[in-house]
């Protein structure tokens, strides 16, 4: 059957009486990083999605090719990956639950522990804001209520205010370190103090999607917090440092009283065989991945020092990105970047997040910042 223009128009007409859940109309739409525009004479660079600009290691690509059997379902428990992670992290394999990226692992957790109660009251999920923009979507879809606690002016979590926001309806607290999109990490001392203030029946999630890029010696290690605190859940992913964003493989780490319920809500076959084998190969060649990551960290240092030399004031960057708190100038800066064939991630009238990309992309970004006069400046 050939689709005509009239067929397309008819398909776009909503069916009468079909309506979404009321919460759908209240949720923001996730806005993925846009690709760069084509500018004649310039190589285009995408700095809007916090992707690793480099492909997986050759050994990982070999593993992907060898695992390319797609007519069979994958192992629903990702046994090979969980066993490899168990050895790599020195944690029981039973404490690991895989998911479609760290976001998939988070969605499984929220679906299990936060939602609508029989009395009609919604559970509460506390998280910093601004932070990962999928948080309000995931919380809302789970049926829970978002409690957003504003960041400190320097882009860090206001942990005191987050602790004060706890009520009898609080079920989950999300900590994002390094915080996306602002960049600072939480320290071990800060998290230890925070956990002492939180009732142990509340799950505290430490979202470490960017932990591969952290070089702050005082930064919290989520796995160590999980070892000491039974209510801590750690989220990690292979999307960033390992460069497997397109394969969607992440995981959570938690103690048995949590994971035994998580497995019920885990999406069957969420991690493909190809993704699993790529992640296993990445762990087995971790030293080579660290070398690549160190190159991006060196570029991050160059960008940060370059911005500071230009007089810009930015939060401490510990992810693979930097944050420019541009306020109402955000759309204008993003437009100027587009004219330079650079796609950056603009957040309303709050600021711009710029991924650390290829050397030429970073150099062009610094050149733009050198000529831009409205940015946040060191006082």
UniProtKB/TrEMBL annotation:
Its EC number is 2.6.1.57. InterPro entries: Aminotransferase_I/II_large, ArAT, HistidinolP_aminotransfase, PyrdxlP-dep_Trfase, PyrdxlP-dep_Trfase_major, PyrdxlP-dep_Trfase_small. Residues 46-365 form the Aminotransferase class I/classII large domain. Keywords: Aminotransferase, Pyridoxal phosphate, Transferase. Its cofactor is pyridoxal 5'-phosphate. It catalyses: an aromatic L-alpha-amino acid + 2-oxoglutarate = an aromatic oxo-acid + L-glutamate. GO terms for molecular function: histidinol-phosphate transaminase activity. The modification N6-(pyridoxal phosphate)lysine is found at residue 240. Homodimer. HAMAP family: Phe_aminotrans_2. PANTHER family: HISTIDINOL-PHOSPHATE AMINOTRANSFERASE, HISTIDINOL-PHOSPHATE AMINOTRANSFERASE 2. NCBIfam families: PRK03321.1 (NF002878). Aminotransferase that catalyzes the conversion of aromatic amino acids and 2-oxoglutarate into corresponding aromatic oxo acids and L-glutamate. Belongs to the class-II pyridoxal-phosphate-dependent aminotransferase family. This is Aromatic amino acid aminotransferase. The lineage of its organism: Bacteria, Bacillati, Actinomycetota, Actinomycetes, Micrococcales.
């Amino acid at each position: 059957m050939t689709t005509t223009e009239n067929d397309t128009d008819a398909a776009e007409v909503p069916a009468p009486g079909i309506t979404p859940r009321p919460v759908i109309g209240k949720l923001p739409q996730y806005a993925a990083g846009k690709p760069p525009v084509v500018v004649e004479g310039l190589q285009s660079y995408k700095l809007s999605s916090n992707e690793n600009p480099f492909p997986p290691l050759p050994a990982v690509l070999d593993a992907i090719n060898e695992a390319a059997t797609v007519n069979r379902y994958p192992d629903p428990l990702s046994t090979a990956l969980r066993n490899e992670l168990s050895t790599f992290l020195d944690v029981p394999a039973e404490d690991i639950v895989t998911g479609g990226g760290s976001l998939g692992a988070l969605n499984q957790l929220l679906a299990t522990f936060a939602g609508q109660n029989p009395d009609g009251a919604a559970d509460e999920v506390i998280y910093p804001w601004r932070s990962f923009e999928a948080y309000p979507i995931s919380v809302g879809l789970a049926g829970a209520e978002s409690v957003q606690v504003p960041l400190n002016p320097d882009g860090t979590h206001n942990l005191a205010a987050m602790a004060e926001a706890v009520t009898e309806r609080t079920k989950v607290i999300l900590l994002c370190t390094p915080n996306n999109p602002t960049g600072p990490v939480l320290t071990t001392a800060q998290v230890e103090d925070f956990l002492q203030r939180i009732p142990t029946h509340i799950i505290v999630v430490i979202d470490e999607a960017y932990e591969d890029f952290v070089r702050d010696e005082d930064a919290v290690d989520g796995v160590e917090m999980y070892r000491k605190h039974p209510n801590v859940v750690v989220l990690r992913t292979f999307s960033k440092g390992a460069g497997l964003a397109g394969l969607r493989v992440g995981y959570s780490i938690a103690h048995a009283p949590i994971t035994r319920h998580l497995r019920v809500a885990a999406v069957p076959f969420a991690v493909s065989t190809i993704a699993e084998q790529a992640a296993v190969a990445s762990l087995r060649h971790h030293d080579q991945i660290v070398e690549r990551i160190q190159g991006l960290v060196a570029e991050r240092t160059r960008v940060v020092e370059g911005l500071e030399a230009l007089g810009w004031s930015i939060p401490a960057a510990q992810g693979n990105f930097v944050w420019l708190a541009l306020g109402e100038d955000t759309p204008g800066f993003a437009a100027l970047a587009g004219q330079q064939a650079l796609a950056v991630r603009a957040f309303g009238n709050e600021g711009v997040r710029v991924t650390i990309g290829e050397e030429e992309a970073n150099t062009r970004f610094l050149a733009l910042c050198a000529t831009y006069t409205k940015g946040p400046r060191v006082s």
